[in-house]
Amino acid sequence: MNSAETPAPYGTGSQAGGAPSQPVPRIRTHHLQAAKDSGRRFAMLTAYDQYAAEIFDAAGIEVLLIGDSAANNVLGHATTLPITLDEMILFSRAVTRGASRSLVVADLPFGSYEVSPAQGVESSVRLMKEGLVHAVKMEGGAHYAETVRAIVRAGIPVMAHVGFTPQSEHSLGGYRVQGRGEAGRQVIDDAVALAEAGAFCILMEMVPADVAAEVDRAVSVPTIGIGAGSATTGQVLVWQDMAGLRSGKQAKFVKQFADVRSVLSDAARTYGDQVRDGSFPGPEHSF
């Protein structure tokens, strides 16, 4: 693999001082594999619209995830379960239009792959053909290995998701850490089975850090963590959590890197005040 094929180290496509440079190649699955092989790390964020995709893409985020978390972060649902495949395709179209460099991955929503491998292939084809994504993500353990194989045989890269799987929250007893004690062996076995089935990456959510580290050693493909410690190849957060848009109590694994909620609140308040007192629009805003 030469330097023309591999962004090193995942450049942002601009030179010092903000001057545009040559276009940076699209991040591909083999770039993530190269990161794992060479001991480098990469970042992943959710995105659900054009502007978030543009901003995160330009900031050098290697992977953008159109998560089924759009259900509770955009559409106002209490869980990820209600979002439909058609809605995921709509969000995917917006993100893929806004991202020129990042690898774009979309979740297979609840109900779109559980019936059979054929259903999983059909749903994945729609996400790729209509949503224009580059890969799909699927929740579940080793029992979905055949579905992963079928999707990969169709030419669609699959990111596997193990540990806590939000689509199974009712059967798991709510939002709970998975893989503690002897249960850690199951997380490892699931990850190995899915990697052997052809998954190009293993995402682990809310699993003990030592279990995640063992998974990372057990599989040759890259790993991504969210609440899974620091031993994984990559990390992912929901962007509204990362940027401080969400209010209220945050999960233990969330770090807020900004306070976007306060910035937007202040801007809206100032806008409202200026409209009401007549100072906006001023002569400079009028024709």
Any overview of this molecule?
- α2 crosses α4 (85-98), α5 (117-129) crosses α6 and α8 packs parallel to α9 (209-218).
- Helices cover 38% and strands 13% of the residues.
- The chain is α/β, with parallel strands linked by helices.
- It has 11 helices and 8 strands.
- It is globular, with a radius of gyration of 20 Å.
- The active site is at residue 205.
Report the structural category: alpha/beta
The total of helices stands at: 11
Query: Mind describing the biggest β-sheet?
Result: 8 strands, parallel, barrel
Measured on Cα atoms, how large is the radius of gyration? 20 Å
Beta content: 5-15%
Flag low-confidence runs: 1-20
Q: What does the overall shape look like?
A: globular
Q: What series of H and E elements makes up the topology? A: HEHEHHEHEHEHHEHEEHH
- As an assembly, this protein is single chain
The CA-CA distance between the termini, in Å, is 56 Å
Average pLDDT for all residues: 92
How many beta-strand runs?
8
Percent range for helical residues?
A: 25-40%
Strand order of the largest sheet: 1-2-3-4-5-6-7-8
Key words describing this protein structure:
single chain, 287 residues, alpha/beta, 11 helices, 8 strands, 38% helix, cytoplasm, Pyrv/PenolPyrv_kinase-like_dom, 3-methyl-2-oxobutanoate hydroxymethyltransferase
Task: Offer a quick outline of the entry.
The protein has 287 residues and is an alpha/beta fold. Helices cover 38% and strands 13% of the residues. It has an eight-stranded parallel barrel, surrounded by seven helices.
